[in-house]
Amino acid sequence: MSDDCCASACGSETAKADPRWRRILWIALIVNAGMFLVEMVAGAAADSRALQADALDFLGDAANYAVSLAVVGAALAWRARAALLKSLFMLGFAAWVFASAVLAFVNGTAPDPVAMGAVGLLALAANAGVALLLYRYRTGDANMRSVWICSRNDAIGNVAVMLAALGVFGTGSAWPDLIVASIMAGLALTGGFQVFRHAIAELKALPAAVEQA
Question: Which helix (H) or strand (E) holds 126?
C-alpha cells in the first residue's frame, strides 16, 4: 500500500527511471522552437492567419515542453500543477486565434496558398515525428498526457493548414484560411479543457499534506 501511494504521490517512477522521456522532451522543445521561427516568418510573408496561429502554437508547445522538463521526476502534485499551467497556455492560444481570425475577417486579404502548403507540409512532418516519439506516453499522468495531446492536435492542425492552402488556391478567398484558424482554436480549447480536468482530478485525489509539498 505505501509503495502504491508513493508511486502516485511522489511522482511517476517511469518518468524518473526513463531517460528516453527526457531526451524526447528535449527533441520536442528544439523542434517546436525552430518551427515557431519558420512559421512566424512564413506566416507574415504569406499573410496567412492559419500559419501564424500554428506558429504561436509551436511557441506555446515549446514552453510546455520546457515546463515538462522542469518537473520530470517531481512529485505528482507539482506535475499536475505544471499541467494546469500548460492548459492555460492552450486556452490562451485559442483566445488569440479567435481574435486574430475576427481581425483578419475585417481587414485581411487572401494569403499565398503555395507558401501555406509548403510550410504546412514541413510543420506536419515535424509534429508527426514528435507525436510518434511521444505515443508510448499518451496514457501517463496529466503532465505526460498534456504533452501527447498537444502534439496530436498539432499534427491534425497541420493537415488542416494544408487543406486551407488548397481552398485558398481554388477560391482565391481568405475564408479557408480563417476557417482553419478557427478550427485550430477549437482544438486548443478542447485539449486545454481535457488537460485542465485531468490535472484538477489528480490534485483532488492527493492527500492534503502531499499536495502542499
Answer: helix 113-134
